[in-house]
Design goal:
Elements (H helix, E strand, L loop, with lengths): L2 H12 L7 E6 L8 H5 L7 E6 L5 H4 L1 H23 L11 H12 L5 H10 L13 H5 L14 H12 L9
Parallel strand pairs: 1-2
Helix pairs in contact: 4-6
Length: 177
């Protein structure tokens, strides 16, 4: 990302006129994020943006997304992508298209059932103190045990499963052909 793109992002997404009057933004120590005056230059009058930088070298235990979110996020994207690719004749959803992936991610991660999972890394990093209830990951909820082992009712099922396993590294449906 360039500094110009970063400033556009702040202007359009963070400091947008429809955003709250006061905001706190926690960003890493990338040099452009340290230029608070440049960031403040895109904040409209009447808005207050407080910027805090995570110290360099502390991202793995201070950045909530690195603490927990990225692992279940990547697992879910990988699982849905594999499922769609293996079942591409039955599912019309081109996962290679950026907008389709963004829509999938948005629908999955704004579901209320995942709120505790999204709050957990903030608690683990020490930014919030509320009690986080036990939760399941998106893969555990959306792909419960046995979903990949449903009985196949086509004559070529066993061969299709072998080909899918080769193509997708044994991540596809396992059929009982």
């Amino acid at each position: 990302m360039t500094k110009s793109l970063m400033l556009d992002w702040f202007k359009e997404c963070v400091a947008h006129p429809s955003s709250p009057t006061e905001q706190l933004v926690l960003v890493d120590s990338w040099s452009s994020f340290k230029d608070h005056s440049a960031i403040q230059s895109v904040v409209p009058p009447g808005k207050k943006l407080t910027i805090r930088n995570i110290p360099a070298g502390t991202t793995s235990f201070a950045q909530p997304l690195d603490i927990y979110f990225f692992h279940p996020f990547k697992a879910m994207v990988k699982r849905v992508t594999s499922f769609v690719q293996v079942n591409d004749e039955d599912i019309d959803f081109p996962v290679h298209l950026r907008d389709n992936r963004l829509q999938m991610i948005s629908l999955i991660f704004k579901a209320p059932i995942f709120r505790p999972m999204l709050e957990y890394p903030w608690k683990k990093a020490g930014y919030i103190y509320s009690v986080i209830p036990n939760f399941k990951t998106p893969v555990q909820i959306c792909f419960p045990p046995g979903i990949d082992s449903t009985t196949c009712h086509t004559s070529s099922c066993a061969e299709d499963s072998k080909n899918a396993a080769k193509k997708f590294g044994n991540r596809g449906n396992r059929a009982n052909g």
